[in-house]
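Quick log. Single chain, no ligands specified.
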Amino acid sequence: MNILKYSTEKKNHWDSFVNGAKNKHFFFLRDYMDYHSHIFNDNSLMVYDDQNKLIALFPANQEDGTLYSHQGLTFGGFLVDDKMKAATMLEVFDSLIFYCSENGFQKVIYKCIPFIYCTNGSDEDKYALFRNNSRLLRRDISTTIFMDNKLPYQEQRRRAVKKAQKNNLVFSKSEKYFDYWEILNETLKKQHNTQAVHSFEEIISLKEKFPNNIKLFIAELNDKILGGTLVFENDSIVHTQYLANSEEGREVGALDFVIDKLVNEVYSEKKYFDFGISNEQQGMVLNTGLIAQKEGFGARAVAHDFYELRIN
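-> predicted structure:
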């Protein structure tokens, strides 16, 4: 078994494997990963078996003697296809540990891919982490609606949707990214004294590269955006990104209206509808108000686990 560091001439080989992986996501494709290559020192790895066949990818970057599951991505351990088996994954980890030892890494920070993004059983890596004495470093909580077993909305969410309908809000898929980004950053500034991780220019560039995966949905009244969300669409799952509600939007239930439309109309055939995490301070603080809103739509907890693997 052999591990090689990714290089640009391997781009097509990398992307082809991602598209066939059982735990794939479009943000593992190089056109997405490389948009922030000026920020992260990429050290992604490609694992080949003894017949020189590619069997796994590890999206990663390096910093100060640590190999990280790529810090520019929400999650991302080993990407594998349906041929991967538990015993082989143990060999993959042996090779990873040898690679890290040979290249001066003291530890690996490994972010597991949540099961909702997998098309088949994909916990071979968790077993290998256990076998190699990794420790659970962090656990975030995402909230997800299981679309074939929807739970009823809480009364507050139902009332908000009805209020939006009564006020004749208009729901649509939109290209008004500039207007929305202004509302988003204004909301983030007021509520959290921060701004969107992606700049307007970055999100437009990514949207143009992935038009079938990155979409904007909004609620308007008299052509004025009151609320909405960006979505990342990935096969059987859709993930909300950058939810925003203006002050006027909160009064008339704009964001609740958008979510209701997405869950019950636009993405009703998806398997999962994921709202993302509600944690702060490396998972140790739960934003109870934020998660309560998501749980109000019937979403329930799915863990995002981070492990630390020490290299002896």
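DSSP finds ten helices and 15 strands in the chain.
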